[in-house]
Design goal:
about 180 residues; mainly alpha; 2 domains; 7 helices; about 0% strand
Length: about 180
């Protein structure tokens, strides 16, 4: 898949969980590819979709971040972004390896997507729309939770947090 799709999927899924961690998840969503360049800079050549695309590494990163130690969920968000990358790559024809023990690649749904073709954009669009729907449906409209990507300007106006001019300027914006 192309980076724009990896970024969109990681950003949308992280925005539901913790919107303030979207930049870290986006960085993680491109990590399996740029880590290959980092390893190459240190003298270790790695073939594409091998060592940095092991599913088990990203799952262990999420488990470590959630249950062992994490600084403000940064490790979890980065690892979740990396996992979303290998998940999306598992939808392609080339697939991804599960781990170092695996000599075969893993494909979801038969690996029907091809990089750069319209199918990957459709899958990304469906995932992003589903994430936006979940975000809108689970949003608390009582004003108690801060959601930076889903503003409720009428409620802010009725609470006296904004004035009429700001409400009028933003009344039709929901994102």
């Amino acid at each position: 898949m192309k980076w724009v799709n990896h970024i969109a999927i990681a950003g949308a899924t992280c925005a539901i969980w913790k919107p303030e961690l979207v930049p870290i998840a986006v960085l993680g969503s491109t990590a399996p590819d740029w880590l290959e360049w980092v390893l190459k800079a240190f003298g270790r050549r790695v073939a594409h979709r091998t060592l940095t695309h092991y599913v088990i590494y990203w799952v262990l990163g999420i488990v470590f971040g959630m249950f062992v130690w994490d600084f403000h969920y940064a490790i979890t968000a980065f690892s979740a972004g990396g996992f979303s990358h290998v998940f999306a790559d598992s939808l392609t024809l080339m697939g991804v390896p599960l781990g170092w023990w695996s000599d075969r690649r893993f494909n979801l749904f038969g690996g029907r997507l091809r990089t750069g073709q319209m199918g990957e954009y459709w899958v990304t669009g469906v995932i992003v729309v589903m994430c936006i729907s979940v975000g809108v449906m689970t949003r608390h409209f009582d004003g108690g939770d801060y959601t930076p990507f889903f503003w409720d300007y009428p409620d802010y106006y009725h609470q006296g947090l904004i004035d009429g001019a700001e409400w009028k300027e933003n009344r039709f914006r929901w994102l």
